[in-house]
Amino acid sequence: MTRIILEACVANIESAVAAQDAGADRVELCNVLGAGGITPSYGLIELARKKITIPIHVLIRPREGDFLYSNDEFSIMARDIAMCRDSGIAGIVTGILKDNGSVDTERCKELIAAAQPLSVTFHRAFDLTADAFTSMEEIIQMGCARILTSGQRAGAMHGAGFISGLIKQSNGRIIVMPGGGINEKNISQLKKTTGANEFHLSARMIKPSKMLYRNEFVMMSGEGADEYSHDVLNAEQFKKVRENAEQ
After folding, report:
1. Which of 44, 122, 152, 160 is the most core-located residue (most Cβ within 10 A)?
2. pLDDT, tens digit, for every residue of 197-222?
3. Bridging pattern class, strands 204-208 and 146-149
4. Could you give the C-alpha distances from 168 to 43, 114, 147, 194, 209, in angstroms and in order?
5. Residues 177, 167: contact at Cβ < 8 Å?
6. For 11, which DSSP code?
């Protein structure tokens, strides 16, 4: 039986170490998971390289929001890729779209060339393309190793049938990796429905702060935000996903 590859999406060093200990095959390193992730700091990338031995793929996304980028934002992405390439990580995760919902192949090719010899994943910008099957063919031609997708739905379970169609059309020319809401309860069904061999998940839980003094009147993250907690990877949940994925 083909081994199932599990990629853990992590946004801090604690989660990166926990992911490796829980059996992750690879981590996608990013920041601000609540916004879908943005490029992590250089310090986090460097420390993760020292702390874990499994492959690290770094998200190259200069801001939250859409995937239509200005010239300055594109320049930031190129600089971040150069830094990642020099730091010795295994891959990057990125993607750029045009305003009509098509893949910006010209700019993406520039980033892919700049990233060589790193592995390149086209991220969930793919889920916002106007024509997914045409976009997949373009992404294959660009030389990406994989596509991360929820099947153009809110979560991978809802898009499972669509993902299955993508995998059939890809015919082994690119890895189609489901992501979005994957957990220990649905991984077995997703594996059967999609036929995928790689899966992307965060297995997040809330970790309360150890701060004793608290000022409840200050909101750093906006109205209603909890300033005294943050998300970390739930190692026990991730282990259960691994167990169920292998069944």
Report:
1. 122
2. 999 999 999 999 999 999 988 888 77
3. unpaired
4. 40, 30, 14, 9, 46
5. no
6. S
